[in-house]
Amino acid sequence: MKREEARTLLKSLDQTEGEARLKLALLGGWTLVLWGALWALGSFLLAWNPEVGGRFWTVAGPLGGLLSFYLGARQGVSVRTFLGLQTFYFWALLTLFALLHWLLLLPPTDLRGESFLVSLVAFAYAYLGTLWRIPGMAQAGLGLFAVDLVLYRAFPDLFHLGMGAVGLWALVYGGVLLWRWTR
Amino acid sequence: MALDPVIHQETRLRLMALLHALGEGAQAEFSWLKDALGLTEGNLSSHLAKLEEAGYVRVEKGYQGKRPRTWVALTPQGRAAYEAHRRALLELLRSEG
Questions:
Q1: Membrane-crossing residues (chain A) (predicted)?
Q2: Which among B71, B70, B72, B90 has a CA at the least distance from the CA of B82?
């Protein structure tokens, strides 16, 4: 075998492994599609009318959470991994933590509360990117935190629009991944 | 370090890479593997049979409720063989000429 063949083969193996981990970590792309759509719609609604946006999240948040856990459990039937189980429990704990913190410490109508929730999600992706050895995911988590920080501190009036744009990006990227993995 | 002829076939190598990526002790269902690799049932079965014969994968049949399922896992021997194969490829890459 020639060196170039070995190089191509190793690259292909790295790609296969990386793609498999990404697919599992993102539940086949559904995580980004679901939460990208909810995030975009919810954020744009909040920007347009906080009351309407708040009502949207009261319903969409718990439903989205339940659907995410269902998708995770369903994937766990097809692929049984210790990492998958760790991820499932991690999201469950984070959801509980976020819910308790938001309800008891920060009111849901406060921008600080929303920013805190975004930073939790950002931390989750940064952590899971490290756990699953997906550098791009860890970087995305850090990037999301940076966006959260900049919008909250420097452009609070644009916070919801900015988060809407982030949601749209996630929706599009998730859609591309979903298409790639299901065609 | 020599390349493993059992693993070196392209589809079997991808299959081993996929199973390796799932982590130690992981199991993947047959249909999930089939979809992930873009293979037909017959093709995947044939490659799994060769890997199982070599002791690199373990194939278990069971049920999830009433639905029959087939689970595939990389054995410790398979994990070691795949990692050795990767090292052999790296050595080839670093070799002179």
A1: 21-48, 83-104, 116-132, 161-179
A2: B90
